[in-house]
Amino acid sequence: MELGIRGKKALVCAASKGLGRACAISLAQEGVDVTIVARGRERLEATAAEIRAACGVSVQAVAADITTAAGRAEALAACPQPDILVTNAGGPPPGDFRDWSRDDWIKALDANMLTPIELIKSTVDAMIERRFGRIVNITSGSVKAPIEVLGLSNGARSGLTGFVAGLARKTVRHNVTINNLLPGSFNTDRIQTLTNAAAKSRGISFEEVMTERVATIPAGRIGEPMEFGAACAYLCSAQSGFVTGQNFLIDGGFYPGTF
Description:
Order of helices and strands: EHEHEHEHEHEHHHE
Radius of gyration: 18 Å
Oligomer: single chain
Shape: globular
Distance between the termini: 28 Å
Mean pLDDT: 95
Number of helices: 8
Low-confidence stretches: none
Strand content: 5-15%
């Protein structure tokens, strides 16, 4: 399906690898010029070169920490008026809430709630003026089904979800939509980190933990990032203008609820 976004400009955060990278590739495949942001320059530049070669679109690479004011300023200087914004940041570490300090909470909120809000604040009014905007926040399946050891993520991402629920109903009349994508278990560095942490805490092997994880997923496997990227591209399409304020769970059927 032609998504109707060829020639649009997208700012995609944490896009050197994993789900952010997959979103950037999927948008570029639709003819979108992308600005990708991540902290690690070497890997980011490699991803940018790969997308240019494969898709023939303009790709800018901004090596910056999007969770800081300086990093956001640098990203927005490179792409000051994106038509599409994909917010994303690495999730906070797992652990026991008794061990987390106030600074741990503030860091999690900065990365996974306040940074997306600041980026939306910086871009949404220009989208409204142009009468086209697509904002997609990559959050987590833990928003629907909290994960005990991911309390920092549960809290910060749920806060963002509540904020988006209100704002998205105000912007949609201007053809500016805001939605959230909630990944379950995907083949990314994040799943490797969480699985290693679980294996260490339980005194069993990485393979045993991964086997247990897969056994809980009705699809019988973990997801591939490009499956996630394709969903992001649809939410950024011209055809998705009637979809806003939604939380799309992509988890292979892991969440058992009806709603």
